Amino acid sequence: MPDIAIHTEALTRDFGAVRALDGVTLDVPKGIVFGFLGPNGSGKTTTIRLLLGLLEPTAGRAEVLGFDTRTQADEIRARAGALLEHSGLYERLSAWDNLDYYGQINRLPAQERQARIRDLLTGLDLWERRDEKVKDWSRGMKQKLAIARALLHRPLLIFLDEPTAGLDPIAAAALREDLAALAAREGVTVFLTTHNLPEAERLCAQVAVIRQGRLLAVGSPAELRAHTGGPRVEIVGRGFDEHALTLLRQQPLVADLEVQDSCLTITLRETAEVAPLVSLLVSAGAQVEEVRKGSASLEDVFMALMEEEQQQ
Amino acid sequence: MIADVLTVLKKELKEALGEGGGRGKLNLLILVGVFGVFIPLQSGRAWIEQPGMVLMWSWVPVFLVINVIADAFAGERERHTLETLLASRLSDRAILFGKMAAAVAYGLGIALTSMALSVVVINIATWDGQLLLYPLPVALGLAVLMLLGCTLMASLGAVVSLRAASMKQAAQTLMVVILIAFLPLSLGPMLLPEQLRMQVFTAIMNADIAAIALIAGAILFVVDVLLIAAALARFKRARLILD
User: Fold this and answer.
1) How far is A289 from chain B, CA to nearest CA, in Å?
2) Interface predicted TM-score (ipTM) of this complex, two decimals
3) Which residue of B has its CA nearest to A77?
């Protein structure tokens, strides 16, 4: 599997009577940002711990960068970087000392280490503050530094566990930008867990959705959107009575309709011109104020998958 | 593995010595001042001429190890930095030995600095034209005893800290263990009748210090080995992650 960074087969982990991960089978291609989505307590962190060989699976197996997590965990940890649930920074040390420590741990020669630290800190706008103790920094700056630490030894794969959790929207957006730029520049495979769906949609080439330890779906955001719902049109106005709605339902293009307050949402079977539908509504007596075209967001997909899972 | 141990050791020492900023460094200076200047001056030339005197103070570095070792394990877990370290390429042993070595180096470093300073201070204060030094076997013996004492506390500290919920709890537990161990030694003589106490004191002062040090060293060595084995058995990645 030369192009696969992570491969799992029926990966399962129990904590006593609780099954945290339930038979997860997954392939993560090399060189992409892969999003692992799920609500809190769905098994995301456990998956990362298993993939890093920090925990042993109860059943099933996993290979990371071609190494077995049970027997070759040291090889995996030497080639991977990680930003786990907490930033893991030494707050009593400076930013430079934090990176220097992990550079030494990863056996980077002194000169290369210094150049690499300078490069990463400069790229993240932290160079001027390299000698400050980390405890005085904002959470956003700490997360950036922790990402720099994870990338320091040029790993082939990095695990990021909720990297923007707890950040304000501006800091989170800035971190996402940095992350996307770094991932592209370094050509590294990123395994990102998050419950922030817009974030996953913006960053990830592929996503997997997990709930209560079970994998619900895997694919590109576009594939998942297509699977769950087609393109949509939102029409704001008045007079969406039963007559108008019946006329719309008779159109072969229309898959579904939903009226909430003054907003009519039409799910289409395929992307098409919406003008005929609007004309139809107007001819049926509706007053149209605004028309918006769109498609199901990853959030819609996620919610739909959660509902399906709950119904089962 | 030695390079990895040294990497961990250096970082732990940097944190321990930098802790508390200027105030932390002042505390260190006060400590060295008390054990390197004040107490030796109280004792005068006997501080060097009667090694039994220094032997009585040789347990001091053991106390210095407590905070460093509790911080290195329980403190690191409390501050959520341990998991990231466990996710690195370092082996369990390199992390364990690096942290223990840092605690030992801290306690031993302060003790040996104080001892060296005391020799200078005593010579200046009681100068009679001749340099007064510890005989080499005595100096080496003291250093080895201090090393074994610090190792004892570092390994015990590792075992206790790995079970403790917080750094504070770890340090308190270690302090209680130390007090239980040392109370009989320090309070015991006070409970003895005056005459008997003087006899015991004289006997200690006139005893074969080398033999006493050797026996103490052998006992400490055995206990150290047992505690290090216990710490090694306890310090396992999967177990620490679940903690």
Assistant:
1) 54
2) 0.84
3) B89
